[in-house]
Amino acid sequence: MTAEPLALPEDTKDWTWVIAQGCPECGWAPPPSTEIALRVRATVPRWHAVLRRPDVAARTRPERWSALEYGCHARDVCRVFDGRLTQLLTEDEPTFADWDQDAAARDGHYFAEDPATVSDAYAEAAGRIAAGFDAVRDDQWQRRGTRSNGSEFTVATLGAYFLHDLEHHLADVAG
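The structure assignment produced for this chain is given below.
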C-alpha cells in the first residue's frame, strides 16, 4: 500500500460565486443549462487521459492533490450531485446533506486507489448524472433547494456549479 501523503489544508472557500461570475482561475463561464449534460460527457475522455498518466499519483505541488486524488474527487462529486439533482427533481425545496470533500479524500484513501478503476467509475458516474440533466424538463430548471449553509440552488445553478467543479479540476491537472 502506498504511504499516505501529508494532509492538505482544508478548502473552506465558498465557490458559489462562480455561478454568476464565472471563474477567473480556470476561465470557466456559466453555460446554458441545456449544455450541462453535453459538457459533463466531454469531461470523460479528458479524465481518462489524466488517469492514464504514469505520474498520476504524484503530488506535483505540496498544497494540491495528485491527479489521482482529483480524479477520485471528480468521481465522488458526480455521485454527490447526482443525489442532489434527484432530490431537487423529486422533493419540494430540499436541504442537501453536508459533504466534507476533505474527509472523503482522507477516509477514502484517494491516494491509494487504482487509476483504471477510478477512470471507469468516473465514466459511469458522469454518464449517470449527464443522463439526469438530459431528462430535466423545461419546467424543472427553476426548482429550488438549499445547502446546509443556506446557499440556494435551482436545478440550473446546481448544474452550473457542479460542472465548474469538474472542469476546474481538469484545469488543475492540465487535463
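Interim note for the steering committee: The chain is about 50% helix and 5% strand. The chain has a mean pLDDT of 92.
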